[in-house]
Amino acid sequence: MVRSGNDPTRAAADRMSAIGESILNSAGWSGPRAAADATVLVIDDDPAMRDILAVLAQQHGFALQFAEDGTDGLRIAEQTDVDLILLDLSLPGLPGFDVCRRIRSAGVEVPIIMVSGSNDKVDVVVGLEIGADDYITKPFEVRELAARINAKLRRQRSSQAQVRPGRLKFPGLIVDIGRHEVLRDGVAVALTPTEFDLLALLSASPGRVISRSEMIQKVWGQGADLDLRSVDAHVYRLRRKIEPDGPRPTYIHAVPGIGYRFERRGLNERLSRATDNGAEGDDGEAAATDSSAP
To answer: How far is Cα 32 from Cα 24, in angstroms, rounded to an integer?
Structure first.
């Protein structure tokens, strides 16, 4: 549902819908057509939001599928090829957070943009932790929504179509950049596009400390409006998938006050132990020392 901050009036929603097209047209802005031929699944029960997306779809050339509740949205996500999911949190029946969890549990790895009337940072972090790639708060600028959709679709298409050579091999872990595939102990690991890009960035430079700001710039793009702490939520989820013992990191280590460092298992043990002893609280989870790593 499209809402205006703490005043969820229907008038605000109607006004957003009515001016959506005029905002785009009056500025003479049609934006990049990175979304051409893509399909966006919109899980939202608000007609005003559907109207806005219909305008954007016409402007940018992508197709739409709609679901008015979480159960129907989950069914479509599992059974249909879509390129991006726009997921409202305030849904009838199955809540948006549960829909996101189930979509990821079903192995659907397309980008998910959460839409919410709440600007609570806790909601943002929870959304990112359970698998969303982005989060936008109502009311929002129509241009901003269009830019975020285009950015995600552009990156999704680039990941699928661009052949990027490189197969990074570490003890117990393989990151195949060209095939966009990750294997842990020979078993494929399902990562979201954002998680894969984070892992590719970190693992490409073992031993180098990469700041949160650099991670945002290279993974989400220059000028991305993302809280530094939101990076921690993505890294936390990535760790849970690739680390042999999630609470005791082997590959991705926190560097307090700066960012993260990727290490090969068993290398630089002394440095890792010294750093990780101070990592508790820096990345929102209890980071253990490397002395337990095989």
So the answer is: 13
Quick one: fold of 10-161?
Rossmann fold (3.40.50)
For residue 247, the model assigns a pLDDT of 66
Q: Which residues of the chain, if any, have pLDDT below 50? A: 1-34, 161-164, 266-294
CATH: 3.30.565.10, 3.30.9.10, 1.10.10.10, 1.10.1740.10. Which one for 167-292? Answer: 1.10.10.10
**DSSP bridge pairs for 65:** 41
Q: State the Cα–Cα distance between residues 61 and 65, nearest whole angstrom.
A: 13
Radius of gyration in angstroms for the set of CA atoms belonging to the chain, rounded to a whole number: 20
- The DSSP H or E segment spanning 87 is strand 84-88
Identical fold for domains 10-161 and 167-292, yes or no, is: no
Reading the block at residue 233, the tokens are 């939520």
How confident is the model at residue 82, as a pLDDT?
87
Take residue 29 and report the two structure tokens written for it: 């802005």
C-alpha dist (Å) from residue 223 to 192, 215, 219: 21, 12, 11
Q: What is the pLDDT of residue 281?
A: 41
pTM for the structure as a whole:
0.53
CA neighbor of 117 nearest in space, from 91, 99, 146, 98? 91
257 φ, ψ (degrees, to nearest 5): 80, -5
Contacts of 228 (CB under 8 A, 6+ apart): 212, 213, 216
Q: How far apart are CA 168 and CA 175, in angstroms?
A: 5
- Mean residue pLDDT of the chain comes to 77
Q: Apex CA 96: angle with CA 71 and CA 146, to 5°?
A: 110
The C-alpha atoms of residue 173 and residue 156 are separated, in whole angstroms, by 23
